């Protein structure tokens, strides 16, 4: 994968995450009365439990280098 392709994959992953996080945060706010901080402190399993949903298995199509790129760009802590 070339540098440009890696950046494109990382950009697509960020956009997908952003779109899904926005939709889920709105859902949690409307249906659960959660504030943004409540949403961001919850785990995906906790959010699914509160909404009565079954968690999906992680998407295995995400390349390890894409995940590593995102971890470098958005480190925890």
What share of the residues lie within helices? Answer: over 70%
Discrete helix count: 4
Main sheet summary: none
Mean pLDDT: 83
The stretches of 5 or more residues where confidence is low (pLDDT under 50) are none
Provide the succession of SSEs. HHHH
Shape: elongated
Cα separation of the termini: 29 Å
Proportion of residues in β-strands: under 5%
Radius of gyration in whole Å, from Cα? 15 Å
Could you say which structural class the secondary elements and strand pairing correspond to?
mainly alpha
Strand element count: 0
Polypeptide structure, described:
The chain is mainly α and 77 residues long. 70% of the residues lie in helices and 0% in strands. The chain is built from four helices and no strands. It has helices at residues 3-32, 36-41, 44-51, 64-73. α1 packs across α4. The longest helix has 30 residues, at 3-32. It is elongated, with a radius of gyration of 15 Å. The N and C termini lie far apart (29 Å). 1% of the residues are buried.
């Amino acid at each position: 994968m070339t540098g440009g392709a890696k950046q494109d994959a990382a950009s697509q992953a960020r956009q997908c995450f952003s779109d899904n996080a926005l939709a889920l945060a709105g859902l949690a706010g409307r249906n659960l009365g959660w504030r943004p901080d409540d949403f961001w402190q919850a785990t995906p399993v906790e959010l699914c439990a509160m909404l009565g949903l079954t968690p999906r298995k992680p998407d295995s199509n995400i390349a390890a280098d894409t995940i590593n790129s995102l971890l470098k760009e958005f480190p925890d802590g």
